[in-house]
Amino acid sequence: MDTHILRALYEAEHGVSGADLCRRLGVSRTAVWARIEALRALGYDIAANPHEGYRLLQSPDALFAPDLRARLNPSAILGRDIRVLDRTESTNDAVQQLAGEGHAEGLVVFAETQTQGRGRLGRHWASARGKGLWFSVLLRPTMAPSETTQLTAAAATALVRALHAETGLALNIKWPNDILIRDCKVAGILTELNADLDHVRHIVLGMGINVSHSPSDFPVELRAQAISLRQAAGKPVHRASLAAAVLRELDRDYRRILARDFDSVSEEWESHCSTLGREVAISQGPRTLRGRAEALDPSGALLLRTEHGRLERITGGDVQLIKN
Amino acid sequence: MDLKDIKAILDLMKKNSVSEFEMEQGDFKVRLKRDGAAQAKAEYSPEPAQWIQPRVVAAAPAPGPSMPRAESPSLHAVGAEIKSPMIGTFYRRPSPDAPIFADVGTQVESETVVCIIEAMKVMNEIKAETRGVITEVLVADAKPVEYGQPLFRVQPN
């Protein structure tokens, strides 16, 4: 019911009458009034007057599942089921477990903090409580495992659009899908695939977005390389509004991939990929390749002109931009 | 000798139930072999394509003692193979300081994770999909792999 009330409030420019809400929800005036009071207690600033009815003036900077759902199109795949945990080891693990229990795609799990948030190859991801968006999405696309790399690109383009729309900031992509402001990391994506040789069972797309951190909210060793949207924009960024924007854009790109329209995703991805033309060092386990990132191949792999003049096709590893 | 000649020889071998043929002519060497399975199938579709493993071997200038030979796969008892479902980078451990997932001698079940294949930050935990003991690790840690490339050999049990 909270989702319906909030959706009605978001849709109504000039307020929505109590009678209207009763009709839409099929409940009594008293029941509507009780829910409005409950929302007010959660921090929603809802005005009420006899002429305009109820009007939402401000929503709290909190992650509240019914609110997030109210901000999304009811027909969206992503966000059909949204859960907000106060704390968990890792949202990817939480979604992996629900996936194993047979949960449908579109599930999104957020956490206010993660005790063991992780990046690539078990690297720690700092998830300061309430300062960011730490969440994972469950997808079950009908595709071959080799095609899932398209989702890497799609997740990056969706993040760039959503973050830009909410903040106006200029963002770019470090291959394959770190989101940077200048050369500092503002968001990261970790995709975990569960597949057999020919088909995907499920995919967990995990994202971490630094939203409201001040420098001291980052661990000391990250301060030179990490940045939050608030730091870069110089103003607060509303997390729920941003979360909904990211889910909407992800839904759009996921549909583009399902419709076999990787070309348009890929074009957008490449246009934001600031790694191209840069000198980079790529470490793969014990070996490190150095050279110039020349181009992306049609599958999205990075073509590296090594210091020895060879062209290497890179599909994995840790990319480090070398300062010009 | 060209493909037409080889086809003619294969036809003659079939007609006369000859199972092996070897010929050397200067630098050129050809060895053709039919096996039981191919013979049985040949009754249904007798095109030359049914003749498995005709292998033309150009002799090296200084041939060593072991020439590549066309061998029947049945000679190897390879057990099962765990293959890569995608192009990517092969990792034997979940993180650089963690223990390896599986090694020679590890007993695996179908759900046991044996390695990670990474392609553009999609991390694919590869499961054994079979019950058995790992007898060989076929790729070194952090090396690139191709689609379908065997990663481990498993003796089912």
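The interface with chain B takes residues 120-123, 144-146, 148-149, 151-153, 176-177, 189-198, 203, 284-287, 299-301, 315-317 of chain A (CB under 8 Å).
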